[in-house]
């Protein structure tokens, strides 16, 4: 007989367990730091100061967090439909290609559309590209029974190959040795945050943080609205929790699977919006840089809820930015070490979640009986 | 009484989180007797048996086997102590033969050296002792359910069980098969074995047991000698108040036909015919009951009529109109007043991870009454649930409570409330009282009869023959995907229906 699932009060489930996971991960990471002869408290202080100690640090942290919000939400939405979309990397790649093609079209025919529509159009192109790339495994799952875990990860490789080919042969910058596109037209790119806020008198140092961050915040709210306040969200959750009950209720699990995957892919496309349209202003190779995979950890840690995803994205943003500063200040703590800490965090928040649930449940029971 | 009690439990307690499943439970089962244990769902019977069989360890208390204290920490311990268990859901490998199944877990070595031969010889002996006619080389998957159950019993006996625990053994049997089981249990008793019979069918308790213990809310509330009690007294002890075991029903003339099926056939994914040429007519204001042993096509009949699976042949008419493939969709059928209370509320009737309120709109999520503007309104959904929960006495009346945390009876009331309050004209009902407490059964039966009196056409599928007989105006018996006979509700008798359920049709008889 398998162990019964542990039932916890809501507050413990949503706040205490993730907190315990993070603390445990930090303790283990601290041991690793001690292992290489550094002071973990000092390292933590450096990390936090690097991430949150200056306006510049905060800007970078939020820029990283933007990527994690998009990829985390992508995984979370699919999760609610009972689907494990691990193809965020590929979907973001195709989203980038799609945005680059839209930008090339805009650049080739100036005055095709009013200028103020250029950026929204590029964003829509990115979302459509991501949605298309995720719709394929959704369709295969719904109609052919091919498991999305397999197909999404295979399509990551297809997308990675596709972008190399396109950058080399089709949409690459003529004469450049770099696998990159020409710069996007100025009207199609997103405004950096320090420029965006300057007119209202807020002065910020230049960082990669751009208006894609606002889009990410809006996406958090939109996903919450979608999942918990719309009939489609109700259908998605029903299919995810009990496909037979969905069929009984007249909801088509096949249709919901395809729609949920497309929405998930569109959200993953946000990564391309932030990186290509927001920071690089052109499409470069490997811009996805593993953010798509970290999104899985963000979604797990955030328990699929937009508030949790936002907080987990912020945590990973702190870790990325603070980690970069840390490895700069302490050469013994390399960038790889920071990756190890991130890995430990993922391990504790995702895989070992059940362990802490059991412990927390035990502790709560103990507290109850002694009081 | 020179022999010590075969099995004795003293002061057993077991908690799951905050739920007390067993509280200071004591029980003494005399050697060589048949001891019944009755109680509502959630009364703690299964927990107690799981403790005896070593699935759980008790928080407190002691188990004594033949007078000596014994720790039972795993099923292996239980088997070593001479306890055998026959589960409600059989633990058999369908592709293996009877002898191989019996040998399973007691192979006696990696190479089965002579194991099969010994098993076969032992089986022959056991079969003779207890009059169990069974071919040791038959493939288990090809045996009837009743015979499969015998294999389970043989398995326990082969391992030297002196105490046999049977968990709801008749739930899957036809009445004649159940009678054969009781003959076997008496034979076991005559050989000095001890039998513990867990059931909620009071008639079985009266028929076959020597003593009976009643559990309620995790506690033992009564131990009595069977001849000194009666079904009403046992029911009262189980529920804690007086209950009507059979609701009263007025005779009523049925109205015009509402739902008709002609020549319905259906195949499952493997191509096996699950329904064969089924024809039936459902009139307004009547309850038509389907009697049959589980797995004889009743489930498929419900699902085809509800639009969940498509028939391979045949015609369905609703209000005289033939339903096209597009019409046979759960949402379209609901719009036309055909509601469905599915057989298995956990698998299809509810999303147990949702709140009670969210489940109260399942299938009706498109109703504008649950929205403000384009968005779902949690306030309206909760208000709707509060109203429905009050009307159907769902306890606790908390719309925000996760559905998994309601008891079986209250979950069923949520489904019932959802489908009935939509004023169905046709209601398909599967196993309305499976896993439901006696008190709630009475409530559900009254509701169904009230609907019938209000002119609703009801198709009732239940494996509880008593229920079918108590509620139905007409009874159709099913076997092997066919309708094998029809009886009027008031003249049907159990033996006659049992024959039809076993496939003995009127023509053949």
Q: What do these coordinates show?
A:
The complex is a heterodimer of chains A (371) and B (509). In chain A, 74% of the residues lie in helices and 0% in strands. By secondary structure, chain A is an all-alpha fold. Chain A has a domain at 69-290. The model of chain A has no long low-confidence stretch (mean pLDDT 90). Chain B folds into three domains: 7-239, P-loop containing nucleotide triphosphate hydrolases (Rossmann fold), CATH 3.40.50.300; 247-337 and 424-509, Rossmann fold (3-Layer(aba) Sandwich), CATH 3.40.50; 349-422, no CATH class. Chain B is 32% helix and 25% strand. The longest helix of chain B has 16 residues, at 115-130. The model of chain B has no long low-confidence stretch (mean pLDDT 88). Chain B has 509 residues and is α/β, with parallel strands linked by helices. The interface between A and B is medium-sized, with 23 and 29 residues.
Strand-residue fraction of chain A?
Answer: under 5%
Profile the largest sheet of chain B.
6 strands, mixed
Which homologous superfamily in CATH is the superfamily of the largest domain in chain B? P-loop containing nucleotide triphosphate hydrolases
Structural class of chain A: mainly alpha
